[in-house]
Amino acid sequence: MEYHVSKPSAPVSNSAQRRWANQNEAAEYLGVSTRTVRQMIADGRLRGYRNGPRMIRLDLNEIDASMTPFGGAA
Predict the structure, then answer these.
(1) Cβ(8)–Cβ(28) below 8 Å
(2) Among candidates 15, 12, 20, which has minimal Cα distance to 63?
(3) Which of 2, 8, 23, 45 is a good FRET partner for 69, with 20 to 30 A between their CA atoms?
(4) Distance CA 21, CA 30 (A)
(5) Would you say which domain of life the source belongs to (predicted)?
(6) What sections of the chain are H helices per DSSP?
């Protein structure tokens, strides 16, 4: 039996690589509750990705990108 593994055409840089987290991990990362994370997904502040009926993941890079500075240093 012969197996062929296809290689990606262009290497993926570490900065573009997705960092997946479940809702509990995302809540801990942000320092909020899981209920807040679910509400942020529902109102569009965060984007959730579903794989199947129950598994939801968030991209930590997208969470970082959604942060906006405010105050004197902004």
Answers:
(1) no
(2) 20
(3) 23
(4) 11
(5) Bacteria
(6) 23-30, 34-42, 60-66
pTM of the full structure: 0.70
The set of residues, in sequence order, having a beta carbon less than 8 Å from that of 22 and lying 6+ positions away, is: 55, 56, 57, 58
Q: Which two tokens stand for residue 46?
A: 């965060």
57: amino acid identity, one letter: R
Closest-CA residue to 58 (of 15, 29, 16): 29
Strands 55-59 and 48-51: antiparallel
Q: Which amino acid is at 59?
A: D
